[in-house]
Amino acid sequence: MVLVVALAVALWFAGRLFRVPTRVRFILIAVLYLAVLSMQLALPAGNSLREATGGSAAAWLVAGALAAAIWGYWRVLRHLRGRVHPEDRDGAGSGASTAEVERNARHIALREIGGTGQKRLKGARVLVVGAGGLGAPVLQYLAAAGVGTIGVIDGDAVENSNLQRQVIHSDARIGMPKVFSAQKAMADQNPFVSIRPYNRRLTREIAADLFADYDLVLDGTDDVETRYLVNEFAVRARIPLISGAIAQWEGQVTVFDPARGGPCYACVFPEATAPGLAPSCAEAGVLGPLPGVLGTMMAVEAIKVISGAGETLMGSLLIYDALYGDTRSIKLSRRPDCPVCA
Q1: DSSP states of 175-241
Q2: What is the DSSP letter of 314?
């Protein structure tokens, strides 16, 4: 009997080596089983061939019945699984279509995100301040990731000089408000997300009402005054702020979240940089792909904050130097006397 089992195992793995279909391998093993059973029933007792293959038909009949029971159970289980709709598996999200679940399958397959995390992404409301260099990759990847509601506020229009790094825009949309250009690109990328464009600058008069509609904000602006404004109202709304900045060859990204024990922007930068010490991209230049690197890091942090996966950069400032391929991290802490979040 051991000899027959060894032969069956050899047939299975030889078929796998030569890429024989699974169904054909099962048929070959079934033919072997029937041949052995026939010998046990047809040959007389004491025959050397019958003795070499077990010596009794009863043992083979029991083995065959057991194999048939296991096969039948597997077929029933497979049938029941086939009746479950994909959107109902692993908590992939109520209201999600089959196409939407298939689109996000790689996220759902990640143990740290899964169906529950993808459902959180679908239910999230994220505001992106700025649709320029950092905002472009942030918006593209948040839309691709299936974030349900994405707001974007920016008062500028697409210019020819933007296209070197702001890859969400195109030459054909020069002159179009950036928020509408970004909206078109995001809708083309993922029709399952809701996009809210605000074609205006963020001001103190509208910030409180605007932030109240969202549970996460990402700041990709290059204006210091706006950065302090975004931080102030994110602290007031008790929502996390993911902040990124770039200059020439270098960029940085972090998560500010005082409501959960982290520092705020004003804790780290209590005073604005003196005029002339922080030149703009137009004055100092910027490497084209650099906003893509840092903006993508911001999108990664947003997905982690929303889904609860891993550890975020709260309390750490990640600095990337593209010129020398160097990455370093600086620990951040809250200031007890911070006028914004203390």
Answers
A1: TSBHHHHHHHHHHHH-TTSEEEEE-S---HHHHHHHHTT-SEEEE----HHHHHHHHHHHHHHT--E
A2: B
Q: Are 126 and 148 in contact (CB under 8 A)?
A: no
Task: Give me 297's structure tokens.
Answer: 């890091």
- Tell me if 298 sits within 8 A of 226, measured CB to CB: no
pLDDT of residue 287: 95
| Contacts of residue 286, Cβ cutoff 8 Å, sequence gap at least 6 | 133, 165, 246, 247, 248
Rg (CA), the chain: 31
Q: Comparing C-alpha atoms, which of 57, 53, 77, 76 is closest to residue 65?
A: 57
pLDDT given for residue 279 in this prediction: 67
Kindly report, residue by residue over 188-235, the tens digit of the pLDDT.
999 999 999 999 999 999 999 999 999 999 999 988 999 999 999 999
- The confidence score (pLDDT) of residue 243 equals 97
When pLDDT is averaged across residues 111-127 and rounded to a whole number, the result is 95
Handedness of CA 181, 216, 312, 97 (dihedral sign): negative
Q: Using CA atoms, how far apart are residues 87 and 84, in angstroms rounded to an integer?
A: 8
Give 207's contacts (C-beta < 8 A, 6+ positions apart). Answer: 229, 230, 232, 233
pLDDT at residue number 95 = 55
Instruction: Count Cβ atoms below 10 Å from residue 337 Cβ, excluding itself.
Output: 8
CB contact at 8 A, 179 and 199 = yes
CA atoms within 13 A of residue 54's CA, in its CB half-sphere: 21
Q: Per-residue b/e over 303-336, b at no fewer than 16 CB within 10 Å? A: bbbbbebeebbbbbbbbbebeeeeeeeeebebbe
φ, ψ dihedrals at 134, nearest 5°:
-80, -35
